[in-house]
C-alpha cells in the first residue's frame, strides 16, 4: 500500500512537470480573429481614440497601447491582466461601461495594431479566459 501511494505521487509529480514544461501560449499564437479586430477598431475609434490617439501611441496623460513604452509595462503579463485593467478602468470618463465582448474586441484591435497575427478564433471575454496567454513584444 505504501509503495502504491508513493508510486502514485511520483507519477502525479511527473505529469505535472510535463505540463509545466509545455510551451505557454503567447500573443503570437493567433489568439484573436480579423473580424473581431475590425469590430474593435470601430469601438476604439468611438470610445478610446480621444484619449489614446488614433495611432494608439497615447496622448497627454493617456498611455500608448503599442510600442516600447506599452511593452515595458506589459511584457510578460497575461492578456487577462490587461483585459481586466481595461474592463475595470476604461473608458476613463465612464469606467466599466463597455461589455466584456466589446473589451475583447478592442483588445483584439490592440493586438492587430501591435503586429500580432490573427487566427480563426476570437478572444473570449470571460473572466480568466485569457490567463494562459502571455504578452510578448518579440516572437519567442
Provide key terms for this protein.
140 residues, 6 helices, 3% strand, two-stranded parallel sheet, disordered N terminus, mainly alpha
Characterization of this structure:
The protein is mainly alpha-helical and 140 residues long. The protein contains six helices and two strands. It has helices spanning 2-21, 34-47, 49-52, 68-74, 79-89, 100-113, and strands spanning 25-26, 133-134. It has a two-stranded parallel ribbon. Helix 2 (34-47) crosses helix 6 (100-113) and helix 5 packs across helix 6 (100-113). The longest helix has 20 residues, at 2-21. The radius of gyration is 19 Å and the shape is globular. The N and C termini lie far apart (45 Å).
Q: Give the proportion of residues in helices.
A: 40-55%
Radius of gyration: 19 Å
The profile of the biggest β sheet is: 2 strands, parallel
Structural class by SSE content: mainly alpha
Number of strands: 2
Task: Report a brief summary of the structure.
This protein has about 140 residues and is an all-alpha fold.
Helices and strands, with pairings:
Blueprint: H1 2-21, E1 25-26, H2 34-47, H3 49-52, H4 68-74, H5 79-89, H6 100-113, E2 133-134
Helix pairs in contact: 2-6, 5-6
Amino acid at each position: 500500500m505504501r509503495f502504491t501511494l508513493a508510486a502514485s505521487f511520483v507519477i502525479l509529480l511527473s505529469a505535472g512537470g510535463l505540463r509545466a514544461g509545455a510551451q505557454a501560449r503567447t500573443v503570437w499564437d493567433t489568439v484573436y480573429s480579423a473580424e473581431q479586430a475590425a469590430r474593435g477598431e470601430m469601438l476604439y475609434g468611438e470610445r478610446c481614440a480621444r484619449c489614446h490617439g488614433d495611432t494608439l501611441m497615447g496622448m497627454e496623460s493617456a498611455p500608448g497601447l503599442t510600442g516600447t513604452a506599452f511593452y515595458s509595462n506589459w511584457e510578460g503579463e497575461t492578456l487577462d491582466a490587461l483585459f481586466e485593467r481595461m474592463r475595470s478602468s476604461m473608458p476613463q470618463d465612464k469606467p466599466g461601461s463597455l461589455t466584456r465582448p466589446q473589451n475583447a474586441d478592442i483588445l483584439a484591435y490592440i493586438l492587430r495594431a501591435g503586429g500580432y497575427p490573427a487566427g480563426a478564433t476570437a478572444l473570449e471575454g470571460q473572466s480568466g479566459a485569457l490567463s494562459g496567454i502571455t504578452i510578448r513584444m518579440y516572437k519567442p
